[in-house]
Give the backbone structure.
Amino acid sequence: MSVSAHTAAGAVAVDKPIVDLRGMWIGLALLNGFYLIVRIYEQIYGWRAGLDSFAPEFQTYWMSILWSEIPLELISGLALAGYLWKTRVRDMSTVTPRQEMRAIVDNVKWLVCYAAAIYWGASFFTEQDGTWHMTVIRDTDFTPSHIIEFYMSYPIYSILAAGCFFHAKTRIPYFSKGYSLAYLIVSIGPFMIIPNVGLNEWGHTFWFMEELFVAPLHWGFVFFGWMALGVFGVVLQLLLNVHRLLGKDGVALLTE
């Protein structure tokens, strides 16, 4: 590559803004728009086709979603993690302060989208599920509420958690040096709610327990859900790196 080509490439890299929130807003719009459509679908077909798991319409409108979403989520999660790892920065010593600052901002954008997904999964659809159980006597573990809550919203926020973690691990020098305990907690903790679903469903089937949120069988949801609070530790680590980059030496490097 010629010197002029190198200069042009460098100019493009410098001109790229450090803070660009368009991707985050697009991600939030897609996520929230998708879940609004899902909620409307629930409102229409939850009562019309979701009360009898032995009815043909239940297989059409609900089980078809279950058998479609699980492989799609598995493939999406592996593809995202694989892409982030494949395109990783292999030599962190080549990362400039400007590039590092941009990577930190990008990671914050990942975390914002993850937070939105956590809200939908661990708050909105989870509380909705409690309301559903207090209204409808279920005849299967795969209720319309569960198909959306357990097997759609939980895997989606888990995929975004993997994106947050791998992005930090492969783009930010600070996180590439080892494993951040805070990041492991905030990404793996809420994911562990999914295995807890199996314990929960087994317990309800075996003991025919009443659907009370305070039942010991539900404590795992709270324990792992609260691990999302590890985000405060992650944000603190990100801010420490921002502080380091914006020191006197960092400002001088950024303006070179």
User: Anything to note?
Assistant: Residues 62 and 68 are 10 Å apart (CA to CA). The radius of gyration is 22 Å. The chain is about 75% helix and 0% strand. The mean pLDDT is 88.
